[in-house]
Amino acid sequence: MTSSIYEQLMDYKQWANAGLYAVVADSLHRLQADDRAILMQILDHMHAVDGIFRHHLLAQPHDYGCARSPVRPDFETLAAQVRALDDWYTGYAATLAPAEADEVIAFRFTSGTQAQMRRGDILLHVALHGTYHRGNAGLLLQKNGVKPNDDRFTDLPGISPAMPIDSGARTAPLPTGA
Fold this sequence. Notes:
By secondary structure, this protein is mainly α. It is 55% helix and 6% strand. The protein is built from five helices and two strands; from the N terminus they run ααααββα. It has helices at residues 5-27, 33-57, 75-95, 98-101, 119-143, and strands spanning 104-108, 114-118. It has a two-stranded antiparallel ribbon. Strand 1 and strand 2 (114-118) form a beta hairpin. Helix 1 packs antiparallel against helix 3 (75-95). The chain is globular, with a radius of gyration of 18 Å.
């Protein structure tokens, strides 16, 4: 069990990415050429954003002029880079103290807009951004007859499965209306 929500989010991100990349490695050749190119753009964009925010967390400059690689790597290279960066994020989250998670850092988006975010919010953004685009990738895979990996947070190893409702247990009432 992880000690913080940030560790849990980065563990989930790493696990979900590993599952997606395993499916893509086995089936990239099955995608139509246009869909293969779109999928590679999605994967590269996810990785570029992760890399950009890593630089922000480290207060280091980066060479990204936009949220994609200047030269898109081949799939095998990209997969290795994603594994390495996911390892970095899980290690970073594992050593992030609660006070550090609340620290606000200033940075500049690739558009030039100045911004500030808490370190913890950056980790949340990275996790949610990847989830959104893994969904895009899953749709492209399904369109081409490929079953995407299961990447629900509730499927993450180490997460307690959802408990069935026990008629004798006290639970919060379900909301009514919309």
